[in-house]
Amino acid sequence: MSDTNSPQDWNALAERVARHVDNYLGGLEAVARGEAGPHTVPMLLLEVSQVILAGAQLGASQDVILPDNWEPEVGEDPDLDEVRQGLAERLLAIDEYVEVFDPYKDTEPTSYRLSDDLVDVASDLVHGLRHYQQGRPLEALWWWQYSYFNHWGNHAGAALRALHAVVANARLNVAEEAPAVR
């Protein structure tokens, strides 16, 4: 991102982030419906990784400042409980995990649920997407950036580490195969 963020720069960033958000939301809903089958965890790892890329782009950008210093109303956000429940059912064996939320401030691990984290991220993202869809890309960017630093970035990072651990353990803890008999 350039030092002088023009409206065109902001619009291009908003468009990129909106695509990532839309993909994340669609992927999360598909996994919650069971469409990923045995690939649920790797698919979630991919979805979270891609939305974290959008967060990194927001984090690397200068602060988005709204000209009037207020956020226009977007209406009531959608209820994502059905997605949360679907994810909880698909992730039953691995839904709960432990995380040190802020490695610089926290000293005690805290218990979290992947299904909650994934939907908390979705909730923050859908709110910004609604601004974007209503023709307010600057408000969308402001919300996504603010909530990335304040909320969804931490939850996405924690979920990414938990999902990575599941995939890595499954891949690395494979029993040694017996040598082939000749």
UniProtKB/TrEMBL annotation:
Top-level taxon in the UniProt lineage: Bacteria
Protein name: DUF5063 domain-containing protein
Species per Swiss-Prot/TrEMBL record: Actinomadura keratinilytica
Lineage: Bacteria, Bacillati, Actinomycetota, Actinomycetes, Streptosporangiales
